[in-house]
Each structure stands twice: as structure tokens, then as C-alpha cells.
Amino acid sequence: MTTATIISGSRNLPPAALDRQIERAAAAMLASGVKPGDAVALLLRNDFAFFSASLAARWIGAFAMPINWHATPDEIGYILDDSGAKLLIAHDDLAAPLAGQLAGRTLVAVPTPPEITAAYGLAPSTPLAEATTWDAWLPDDSTPAPPRGPGGASSLIYTSGTTGKPKGVRRRPFQPEHLAAQAEVAVAGYGLDPSQPLRVLMTGPMYHSAPNAYGLVSTDMAERIVLEPRFDAEELLALVQEHRITHMHMVPTMFVRLLKLPPEVRAKYDISSLKFVVHGAAPCPMEIKRQMIDWWGPVIHEYYGSTETGLVTGHGSAEALAKPGTVGRALPGVTMRAIGEDGKDVEPGAIGDIYVHSRSVPDFSYHGRDDEKSEIERAGFVTVGDIGWIDEDGFLFLCDRRRDMIISGGVNIYPAEVEAALLTIGGVRDCAVFGIPDAEFGEAVCAYVEPDDEASLDAAGIRTRLADTLSRYKIPKVVEFAASLPREDSGKIFKRRLREAYWGQSGRAI
């Protein structure tokens, strides 16, 4: 049984009502032909239906499959086809672009709630003619709960597809030993200790694997889950104060935007209730982290992980200050290795490919691509392409993704390092660094900068400032400015879209 009341805008869903909605949705899925092991596609923003549909799929032994709702209709169609999902549950406005493309599938349309409509400036929407409405799809409230299906099914989440078509990470069923280990990881990595009062604020979209796991596990541990319809820095502070929030999952871009608030705005809100604020998904520049710790106190924590591996490392504020740049030490049940080009473990402090084994998550395969799993596996350990080193105390430091690494004139350049330096320059709100074709060196460094509204920046000035902290070969050859970088709702930048303009005619995969 769930424990959390979910709140969104002026609406709330108490635990008993959530439990009943899960049971009704599970019965509706079975009636729609969903079987254990099938995928149930979710094209939903953070809303009550996201929670009830996800947990209903788990109830009957199916896989909830959240889809990034920033994807194009063609990208969504690919995921639906690749997964074989025959049921799609979608908000009205997100389903509208798919009109006429869902033959052979059941479409259940969830009304887009008013707080989401207002946050995104959406026009009022109505269900597609081919859709069944959510309320009509759910059976009568007197319908008994269906029997539980084979236990242990989790979410089927498609990776971002940075280097090609996205791949679905499909796990084997969870066993009791996995669940016990996950409880340890939830406490160590997320701070979700059920013995303590938990009030959670969800700030990022649950189509991402970490917010997905964070939000769903909170339904069984927290007393309250508050959904922020769309991230807004000042609204976040207001919600923390109003609901006495104790726990949040965030990404570094959110920190940057919070720190841009004027001092008088920051001082308006009481955030003393915060106990454990965890961030991940992207590198956090040390200066940003230090400023957040100075402001919020030693409640800032960080984790590292991936869809494939689950949570790998974690650390708190004191360790972050003592070991600047680390992403933490291995969490309970996790073993890490840094492996060199010769296939052997490198010495502490030496750079290698990071491989991970965790007993808190079952083994996985890429849906329909079993052969691709072997490409990233070595003796039971898997890598997602990250490069870094492990120091003598067991702390992991990441350089970058191997696929993002720029090789210019035979020299390795890590975009994350350049981005961290850019974010220390006054007037830089956000940035993205990547490699572009270069006739002489093979690749050159390109930086896209999103300036603050009042900032006066130019390429020459950016390069001059970077020369204070970076070697000459790391300084971007090309600096472009954009009022708004393409990004997901979490704040994560779509680098692929920026790269396409440079690599589209090169014949090289991006």
C-alpha cells in the first residue's frame, strides 16, 4: 500500500485513492490485452496518472515505459514500434501530434490538468477522436483488484540515443535480494529513509530514469509528494516553504538558475526544512556546488549512475568540499573498476573506462538487441562509456563520456571540463561544448553559450577569460551565442541538435 498524498497545484490524491486508482488501472490494462512482460507506453508529464499507470503496470507484471515527451512524432513512433507497446496513455496535448499514427494501438487520453496547462502556456485541449478518455477507460470503482501478476517488473526506459536510435533497457524480474539491496541504496543514495518524515518535491520529468525511480519509490516511503508543474526557481523556493519539503531530486542547471535569483528573492523564503537534496544526471561545477552549500547548508548530495547500472556512487557536502570534483564512492552492493586500453585495471588515479557491477539491480538486456549488451560488458561488469579515475580512497572522478570526448590533433579534450570553466564566467547562464569537423586537426572545440538577459558577451572575451584556467588547445575555436539552447524540461541540453548542423553532411555518426 502507498503512503504518500500526491499534490499538484490545487489537486491532491490521498494514498487510499491512489491505491484504488492503481487497482482500477491494472484491471483496465488487462481488459485492454496487456499481458505480463508487455510494455505500457506513457506519454505523460508528472501527474497523478503517471504514478497510477506506472504502478498498475508493475501490479500485473508489465513494464511501464515512460517516453520523453519532447521527442518528435517519428521518434515516439519508433519507440512504440520497437517496444511492441499496444497501449499508450498520454496527456491530451501530447497525444494531439500523433493523430492518425496509432493504428493497432489503444490510446487512452488523460486530460491535461490546469496547473500544467498554465505552466506551459497551452491552449485548452480535447481528446483525439481515436482516443478513449482516462475516466471512461478505468472500470467502475466497485471493480475488484485483479490478481497480481509475476512480481518484479520495473520500468522499461529508452536511453537518449545520443549516438543513434534509442535503446530500451529491459531488466530481468527483481528478486527479494535485489529489493533488499535497493532499500539500502535508496537511503544511501537518495536519502529516502522511511524511518524519518519525508516530504518530497518532484522538480524534473519522470521519463528520466533517476527521477522515475525517485518518484515511484517515494510513494511507499513519503508522507507527501508535491509535483512542480514546470521548474521555476522562485516557485521551487515557495513550494519548499509552503509544504515544508525535506527531500528533492535536482539537476545542476536548476542550481545555476536558483543562484541567478536576486539576493532579496532568495531571502524571502524559509528553506530550513530541507534535509537531503540530491543531484545527478550531469556534471556540477564545483563553484556552483560550493555556492549551493553556502546557501542551503550541508544538505547537498550527489549521485552518479545510469539507466543500465542504477545508482553507482554517492556523497555528501563534506566529501564534496574535501574532494572537489568527485561524484562519490561506491554505494552499498556496488563494485567499480577503471580499465585501461590493455583491458587491465589501472592504478588509483589513472584514467580508464569505468565499469560497474551492482547487486541492487537485476541484469538487463537492450530490448530486441541482445547482442549489443555484450559490447559494453566485461566479466559481469558493464560500462556506459564514461571515462574517469578512482583515487586511493575509492572516490570516483569523471572526465566525460567517451562518445563526447573531442580528439583534436590526437589530443583528448573533455567537454565537461570546458563547460565547467565557461559557467564560472559572469553572464553565462548555460553552455554546451562539443566537437565539430576540422580539416587540419580532425575535430575542433565548439561552444554554444546561452547568456543572461542583461549580459554583454563576445567570443573574444570568452576566449580571454578561459585562457586564465584552460590550456590553449582546450579553448573553443568556435563560440556561438543562443538566446535559448535546445533542452529537455529537466534543463538537460540536446547537444545532438546542435551537433547536427556541423556533422550532418560529414558522413560521421553523431
Supply the key terms:
510 residues; alpha/beta; Rossmann fold; 3 domains; 13-stranded mixed sheet; five-stranded parallel sheet; 17 helices
What CATH architecture of the largest domain would you give? 3-Layer(aba) Sandwich
In angstroms, what separates the terminal alpha carbons? 45 Å
Quick check: average pLDDT? 87
In the sheet with the most strands, the strands line up as: 2-1-11-10-12-13-14-15-16-23-22-18-17
Number of helical elements: 17
InterPro entries: AMP-bd_C, AMP-bd_C_sf, AMP-binding_CS, AMP-dep_synth/lig_dom, ANL_N_sf
Region (Disordered): 141-171
GO molecular function, one term: medium-chain fatty acid-CoA ligase activity
Family: Belongs to the ATP-dependent AMP-binding enzyme family.
Summarize the structure.
This protein has 17 helices and 28 strands. It is α/β, with parallel strands linked by helices and 510 residues long.
Could you characterize the architecture of this molecule?
Helices cover 29% and strands 26% of the residues. The chain is an alpha/beta fold. It has 3 domains: 11-142, 3-Layer(aba) Sandwich (Rossmann fold); 176-401, Rossmann fold, CATH 3.40.50.12780; 406-503, 2-Layer Sandwich (GMP Synthetase, Chain A, domain 3). The strands form 6 sheets. The protein has a 13-stranded mixed β-sheet with strand order 2-1-11-10-12-13-14-15-16-23-22-18-17, sandwiched between helices. It has a 5-stranded parallel β-sheet with strand order 4-3-5-6-7. Strand 13 (276-279), helix 12 and strand 14 (300-306) form a beta-alpha-beta unit. Helix 1 packs across helix 2 and helix 10 crosses helix 12 (286-296). It is globular, with a radius of gyration of 23 Å. It starts with a strand and ends in a 7-residue tail after the last helix.
